[in-house]
Please model this.
Amino acid sequence: MDIEPDEALLRDLHEHNPWWEVGVDAFDLPARQKSDFYHLARPDATGSQVEEQFLLALTGRRGAGKTTLVHEFIRHRIEAGDPPELFLYLPFDADPLYQLQSAAQLRRAVRYYETRILGRIDTDRPQFVVLDDVHHVGHPNKPSTDGWERPVADLYADDADRHVLATASADIQIERPLADGPLPADAYDTQPTLPEKFRDYVFALRPALERDDRRVSPTSLRTGDGSIPRALETGDVAPLVAELRGKYEQIADVADWLRSQVVEYLAMGGIISYDQNGAVATTTDLPAGAYDRLRDDVRDALYQEVPGFESIQTLADLERLCAIAARNRGADPIRYQDLVELLDVDRRTIADSYLPALAELYLLNGVTEYDNSRPRAVRLYLQDTGLVTALTGGDAAAVRNDFDREADLARIAAFDHTMRLAYNVAAQQGRSWDPPIQYWRGRDGEVDFVFEVGDTPVPVGLGYRPSRAGDRREAVREFVDEYETPLGFLLVGETGRGDEPVTVVDDGILRLPYWLYLLVC
Model:
């Protein structure tokens, strides 16, 4: 039998790029764009994030919506007037044959596109080459085999008005092939694509909440007079309190509904909720097998995508760590020594190899104690609450009918949203921000999360259960006093009847509803 794998991608090129023939009618996408779309496409501005460098890579775990985001970008540009011929889309995960002799297939596909498709129009607008799931043709363990980076370097060298938009599971899958210099460092960048936030979920259910007069924007908490950085700089939290109260008033009439949707979001998480096109208001309407598919996607990621991390010797240990995290639900720190004995590896392997690999794949974060240079324990947070349910063999009813489990998932979601808040505050200030979010233990209890703005720590206590709110308040108070920081947050699942939803409960400590915190992160 004659096998010609170098023609497989070329034969299917028109199938993967139907807009060449039918324009925007080729797309069947969710009614609401991913929140990342606005940052990527900048529909109200000139240009896009893609055009700021030669190559931009969207990185994130399977199911986060990278491919959907790419297609949303292409559709938007065509609707805005770009000829459909300006976009070449190559999905390397669509057929394993595309991954054989991939460098030759990529070169051949681009050559055909430029002569037969792009050549039929006359335009001075930039062209876009999209390499979806490009990590499948990276070949890090085959040094004699060309990966995607060489053909892409050739595209850069020919000086055409062209941009490459790639997707991969982790930054390292983009950065490592380019580390040897096929592209200058300023020619490429990466952008994480994360599971949908709580605000994305509720906006999908009620699009009217996204109107200009209703939309609760987090931007003013990142910069300006009522922002977190300004409160830390001046020591005056009153403008921040006023800003948060104003945001509450924008949606006060639907506060009860927003509160009721928290448990639904916690049960589904950001992957499943988006996979259902954001139309599932209650988990009782989820299709059968939704959690099974989520679990299988994670297993596929671990066994298909982690092999590029040469330091990982036992892939099954990563799955075991995820299972441990799902059972623990971030409730208690786990001693490193206990993990050493369970996995039969040394501490360095866990701390310096396993946990960084899982964080790179946007699956799990290991969190240690703040201001402790020799931590003996680590808290394990999965980066999606739906994954906790999927990996423990549960279903949505297990969340809705178990308040302790709901409170644990609330902690996991708060951790994820706090990471996003800290990242965006740093980005607004032009600072690079590298996790971790950490926890802190004092004499009066535990602070769930600590993040830094510049060099100033900000403590966040979670009193999702009313019985825990008092302890968390005392712990935040102790932290504020010990580190002389002017601001702390206390998040509560419920406020008392007649209580101000957003208020200062102690000097510099702001109490606000849990659902509002998720909404403004």
Notes: The radius of gyration is 24 Å. The longest helix spans residues 403-428. The chain has a mean pLDDT of 90.
